[in-house]
Design a protein that fits this description.
single chain
Length: about 150
């Protein structure tokens, strides 16, 4: 009788450990905003390579494109301020977004001390997730890296 109880307890414990979910709550970080600013600077500096032609229509088109690019990056900046992402990973390598019940499989793309890139896939649906180090505290970031190294 005791062996049946122990076996039952071990099954329950195994289900609990395998199904243990680790929640991660991400919001925009300084490094993420800095990368947007650097990318905007690179894009805007490309306008310096345009030829110095002075027909009025060319100057108009050039300034129109510059204005569009600036508006795009301003919109991205304000979108980034309000950006949030909540997801969980479990001990069996599954993942999901908090607001979605679909279970995704993980695919590790790149792990470094500064940034983690991984992909969550299900059928034809793919989501690229970029996690900068300062989006999480040190313990959570290391834990995310360990989970991705184990199951990604």
């Amino acid at each position: 009788m005791k062996s049946a109880q122990i076996l039952s307890w071990l099954r329950w414990l195994f289900k609990f450990v395998v199904a243990l979910r680790h929640n991660f709550y991400l919001c925009a970080s300084f490094e993420q905003r800095l990368s947007l600013v650097v990318f905007a600077a690179v894009c805007l500096s490309s306008f310096l390579a345009w030829p110095p032609v002075f027909p009025l229509w060319f100057v108009f088109i050039k300034w129109f494109v510059i204005t569009l690019v600036c508006c795009f990056f301003i919109y991205q900046w304000f979108s980034l301020i309000h950006w949030r992402l909540n997801f969980w990973l479990d001990e069996s390598g599954n993942a999901a977004f908090m607001d979605n019940e679909k279970s995704y499989r993980l695919k590790r793309l790149w792990i470094s001390p500064f940034v983690v890139l991984f992909q969550m896939t299900v059928e034809q649906e793919k989501h690229l997730i970029v996690v900068w180090r300062d989006m999480l505290d040190d313990t959570s970031y290391r834990h995310l890296c360990r989970l991705l190294l184990r199951f990604g």
